[in-house]
């Protein structure tokens, strides 16, 4: 059988070790006689799974003690809606939220926020992050929202925390597509959130890391099950959490620790991205649209200059076991998502195919 490399943007590839362990434990978790899917979320078996997952994630990201980690249902869209619902309750009517707009997910978050507050787009570009000195920030804004890795467009960045204007600003970051792939200083952010289905686990789980002083500020219309304070006060058990997804996430966290943690994942991400972008840059057959200094290490959109060859490219890739390379419908082209679980051998196989396809087309 052809070796399969899955470049899907999400739900995405998971470590084979994790899948094998989950398969071995499917019918009987640690001698309990139950599958994790069958366990009560309040029983001692699942509580031990949840506590280990929370503890390991806190260790991997060096999450400070004054931050809560929440495991919730949903995905990026749901969290984009829940952020303003949870952060505006203590703000006056007509408050303003600042946004750094860098692509499709920024668009989605702005759309949700406009239901509850004024929106100021402090900077906007879909091919790079505008220089921070030129960001038009609102004095006294409720918070500053950014998507630090755009899954669809492939823009990635971290803000410059030396900017004195950020000193007293509550930063909210959607890190769905690159969380656990690079070191971050959690203490610089008020809220970090991420859908699990990129670098953590299966779809259906979202993770929220929130500074404790930001809890208890929900709008009155916020449903109780999605009130961050209620979720935090009940250790993510206010309602039934996505138990099996949390279990898989916990296995991924253990796998990450065995690999060497986030520092090692960052080293691998740099190596994989450099390998792929070097191949794309070396050929006139392909083009990329993101400025080199903001290229994502996780999501690599690229285009064939002759787009009439797109279907042939995808068919050839599939025949070689290189799957899910079609770009998002909103932007077209191709996209290779090279998350933590994608081995460098998969990226090398893609590079070999890129070179082969371009050479054949030139004949």
TrEMBL record:
Pyridoxal 5'-phosphate binds at residues 105, 151, 174, 197, 239-240. Its cofactor is pyridoxal 5'-phosphate. Keywords: Amino-acid biosynthesis, Aminotransferase, Cytoplasm, Pyridoxal phosphate, Pyridoxine biosynthesis, Serine biosynthesis, Transferase. Its main location: cytoplasm. Homodimer. HAMAP family: SerC_aminotrans_5 (MF_00160). Belongs to the class-V pyridoxal-phosphate-dependent aminotransferase family. SerC subfamily. This is Phosphoserine aminotransferase. It comes from Duganella lactea. The gene is serC.
């Amino acid at each position: 059988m052809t070796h399969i490399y899955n470049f899907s943007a999400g739900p995405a590839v998971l470590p084979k070790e994790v899948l094998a362990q989950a398969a071995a434990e499917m019918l009987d978790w640690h001698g309990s006689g139950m599958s994790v899917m069958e366990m009560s979320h309040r029983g001692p078996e699942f509580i031990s799974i949840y506590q280990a997952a929370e503890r390991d994630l806190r260790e991997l990201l060096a999450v400070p003690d004054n931050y809560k980690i929440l495991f919730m249902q949903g995905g990026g869209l749901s969290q984009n809606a829940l952020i303003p619902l949870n952060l505006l309750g203590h703000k006056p009517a007509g408050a303003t939220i600042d946004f750094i707009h860098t692509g499709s997910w920024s668009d989605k978050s702005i759309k949700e926020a406009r239901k509850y507050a004024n929106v100021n787009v402090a900077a906007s570009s879909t091919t790079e992050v505008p220089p921070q000195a030129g960001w038009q920030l609102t004095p006294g804004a409720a918070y500053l929202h950014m998507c630090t890795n755009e899954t669809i467009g492939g823009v990635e960045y971290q803000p410059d925390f030396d900017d004195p204007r950020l000193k007293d600003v509550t930063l909210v970051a959607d890190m769905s597509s690159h969380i656990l792939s690079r070191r971050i200083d959690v203490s610089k952010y008020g809220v970090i959130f991420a859908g699990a289905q990129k670098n953590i686990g299966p779809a259906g789980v979202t993770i929220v890391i929130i500074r404790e002083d930001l809890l208890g500020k929900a709008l009155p219309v916020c449903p109780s099950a999605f009130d961050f304070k209620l979720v935090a006060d009940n250790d993510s058990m206010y309602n039934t959490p996505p138990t099996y997804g949390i279990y898989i996430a916990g296995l991924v966290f253990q796998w990450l620790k065995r690999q060497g943690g986030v520092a090692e994942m960052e080293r691998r991400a740099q190596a994989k991205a450099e390998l792929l972008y070097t191949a794309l840059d070396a050929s006139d057959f392909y083009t990329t649209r993101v400025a080199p200094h903001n290229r994502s290490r996780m999501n690599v959109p690229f285009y064939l200059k002759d787009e009439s060859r797109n279907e042939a490219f995808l068919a050839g890739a599939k025949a070689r076991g290189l799957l899910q390379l079609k770009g998002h419908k909103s932007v077209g082209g191709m996209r290779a998502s090279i998350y933590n679980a994608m081995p460098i051998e998969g990226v090398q196989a893609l590079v070999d195919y890129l070179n082969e396809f371009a050479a054949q087309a030139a004949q």
